[in-house]
């Protein structure tokens, strides 16, 4: 079945990622202009606070803030690059119009899915550790892990690319599972037997169902 990812940890971390970008307007720098480690850290440290506020009704629910969050998410995530990498080789075979629609549908599906999922997170007793940062020209890798429920932990790697002086996330690896690679496998399975237009139809349906 399309979009059947490993749930639980994977959805929690990616939901957290969406939450942190909704909270960050740092006066000293525009989004993406910090170094990659600071970019990740500055947002993640407020995740638990945002969860508590929404669940305690001190602030509007995440669903009521979707438009606000989406505007800011676009500043931190390169969704076109994510869509391109997730689709793989077939990306080059599509017209600019179909690429644009695919990227937009892909972004909207992810956003709707994780906004819905994150509302089920408890937001309590999680601690985030920032392990290392590796720079290679305009690419960066930030390694972190989340400690939760005692001694349990999730390892997370953020892959970023700098374009025009701005760092943006294009992939997340949760305990060795690449977000982009996961979707590439699913898209590849569909396109092995169906057309790209059929994939677009399925994406439209999924976006509608998740709205």
Keywords:
211 residues; alpha+beta; Nuclear Transport Factor 2, Chain: A; five-stranded antiparallel beta sheet; 49% helix
How much beta, percentage-wise? 15-25%
Tally the beta strands.
5
CA-atom Rg in angstroms = 17 Å
> Which series of helices and strands comes N to C?
HHHHHHEEEEEHH
Could you explain how this protein is built, in words?
The protein is 49% helix and 20% strand. α1 packs across α2 (36-44), α1 crosses α6 (96-118) and α5 (79-87) crosses α6. Strands 1-2-3-4-5 form a five-stranded antiparallel beta sheet. The model is unreliable at 4-8 and 19-30 (pLDDT under 50). With 211 residues, it is an alpha+beta fold. It has a single domain (9-210), classed as Nuclear Transport Factor 2, Chain: A (Roll), CATH 3.10.450.710. It contains eight helices and five strands; from the N terminus they run ααααααβββββαα.
Topology readout:
Elements: H1 9-23, H2 36-44, H3 47-55, H4 66-76, H5 79-87, H6 96-118, E1 127-136, E2 139-148, E3 152-163, E4 166-174, E5 177-178, H7 179-191, H8 196-210
Antiparallel strand pairs: 1-2, 2-3, 3-4, 4-5
Helix pairs in contact: 1-2, 1-4, 1-6, 5-6, 5-7, 6-8
């Amino acid at each position: 079945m399309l979009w059947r990812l490993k749930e639980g940890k994977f959805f929690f971390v990616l939901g957290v990622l969406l939450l942190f970008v909704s909270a960050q307007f740092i006066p000293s720098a525009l989004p993406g202009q910090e170094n990659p480690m600071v970019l990740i850290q500055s947002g993640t440290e407020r995740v638990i606070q945002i969860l508590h506020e929404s669940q305690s009704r001190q602030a509007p629910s995440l669903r009521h803030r979707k438009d606000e969050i989406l505007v800011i998410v676009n500043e931190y995530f390169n969704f076109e690059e994510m869509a391109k990498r997730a689709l793989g080789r077939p990306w080059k075979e599509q017209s600019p119009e179909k690429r644009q629609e695919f990227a937009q549908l892909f972004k909207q599906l992810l956003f709707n899915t994780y906004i819905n999922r994150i509302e089920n997170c408890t937001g309590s007793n999680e601690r985030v550790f920032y392990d290392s940062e590796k720079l290679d020209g305009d690419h960066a890798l930030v390694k972190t892990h989340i400690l939760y429920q005692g001694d349990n932990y999730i390892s997370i790697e953020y892959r970023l690319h700098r374009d025009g002086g701005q760092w943006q996330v294009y992939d997340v690896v949760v305990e060795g599972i690449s977000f982009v690679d996961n979707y590439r496998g699913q898209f590849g399975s569909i396109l092995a037997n169906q057309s790209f237009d059929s994939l677009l139809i399925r994406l439209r349906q999924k976006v509608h169902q998740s709205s």
